[in-house]
Amino acid sequence: MICTRSYSIQDWVEANPWNRESDEARKRNPALLSNNLSYHLIKLALKASLSVVAVVSYSDEREILEGSGFVIESLNIDGKFCNTILTTASILRPEPHINAVANGIKIVVIQSPGIACDGDIIGYDFNYNIAAIKFRTKMSISPARLRNVDNSVRIDLNMMDEKPPAYHPQTSKFNLAPGDTVLALGRNHDKEYTAMVVGGKFSIDDAELNCKELLRADFLISRYGIGGPIINCYGEVIGINFYSHFCTPFLPINIVSKWWDELKRNRQYLLPWHGMELSNLYMKSECYLEFVIQRFPNIFEGVVVDKVPPKSTAYNTGILPADIIVECDGKCFETVLEFLDLIWDKAGKPVNLSVLRPSDGSRLNVTMVVGKVHPNRYNSWPVPPLITGRRSRMITQRDKDNEIKAKRARLIWES
After folding, report:
1. Could you tell me which of 359, 55, 38, 305 has the C-alpha nearest to residue 181?
2. Residue 25: how many CB atoms within 10 A of its CB?
3. 367: β partners
4. What is the pTM of this model?
5. Nearest to 125 by CA among 86, 79, 166, 80
6. Exposure pattern of 184-197 as b/e (b: 16+ CB <10 Å)?
7. pLDDT tens profile 23-61
8. Is 41 helix (H, G, I), strand (E, B) or coil?
9. Confidence of residue 18 (pLDDT cuts 50, 70, 90)
10. How far apart are CA 209 and CA 214, in angstroms?
C-alpha cells in the first residue's frame, strides 16, 4: 500500500515512516522533506514495490537490523519458487564495524501483508556491503527490473548545446544526470509491512562515505529503507540504498550486478584495488576545469586522482595527487564507475594507464599492477543506532511476533 494523500510539510513530517530528523534539523533543511510525488511516479513505485520485501536479522535472541531488500530472481523448482533478494550486508554483522557473520544468525524475509519466511545466505561482500539471501514461497514474486547507470557528464564546450540522450529501453545503461528524479523504496516494519517511497533528486555531490563508488540522492530514509532499491523514473532499479545522516548514498547496480554474476559463476572472486581516491573530472570546480582545459584543450574525459596512499600500487607506479587518468589499456572512460569496470577482473594483473599531469602539462604512460582488496581495506558502513527506551522493550515481543508469523508461513507452506 502506498499513500497518495497530499500532505503539508508538517503533516508529512509526522506521518511519513521515513522521517527520523529532529525538529531543529528539519528547520535547517526543509527541502529534504518534500515528497509531493506525481501520479505517474506513484504508479511506478507501486509496481516496483511488488519486488520489495522487509528483512529482519537476529543473532541468537538479539535483533541486529530491520531493513529492506528486493527480489532479483524467482525460479520454479519442483513446483515451488526459490527467490533471491539483494540487500545490505549490515544485516549479517554483529556490529557495524565487524566484517564477519554474526553467531547464530537468523534472517526473516517478510512480504506484505506480513507473510514471513526463513532466509538463507547465498553470498555477501563486506567491502561493498551487499548480500544475497534466498527464501522459498508457493507463489512466484515479480523480480525487479535492473538497469546499469551511466553517470557521465560531458564538459566539452563544443557539445554544450546538444540535447541529453533520449531514453532507449534496449540500451544497457540509463543516463543519470544531476537533478534527475529518483525514488527510494522499502517496507515499513508495521503490522502490514506497507510499502514506503520517498522521492528526490540525484546529485553529483560526494556521498562522504569512504566507498567512493557510491552515488548520492538528496533525500533521507529511515533504518527500514536500508538495503532497499532506488529506482529511476521508468521503474528500473539503479542501485541499493544505504544510510547517511544527511543524504541517501546508493551503490550503483553496475557494481551489484557484476558482484552477483561473479558469485553465481565462481563463488570465489577477487575484488580489484587501485589504491587511490578518485573523483570524476566533471565534479571539479570551474577554476580547476579551466586550468586543465588550458593545458589539455582536447581532453574532456577522465578521473582525477585525489589521494594516493603510501605503499599502494598507484603510489609505487608513480601516480600523484591531481593527476588525471584518461585511458586504461587503450580504452577511454569518463567516470570512476567506468574505470572500475575496466579493471574489475584485473586483480593481480598489470594494466596500462595514460595519465595527464596538469602541474607540468605532461602526458605519461605507466603500467600499474591492480591490487586485491583485503579485509583491512574494506569500506566502512554506518547504520543508525538502535532505538532505546520503549523501543528496546518491544524487541522481545517483536521477536515473538515474527516467530509466530514464520511458523504460520511454514504451516501454510507445508499444507
Report:
1. 38
2. 15
3. 352
4. 0.81
5. 86
6. bbbbbbeeebbbbb
7. 444 334 433 334 578 888 989 999 999 999 999 999 988
8. helix
9. very low
10. 8
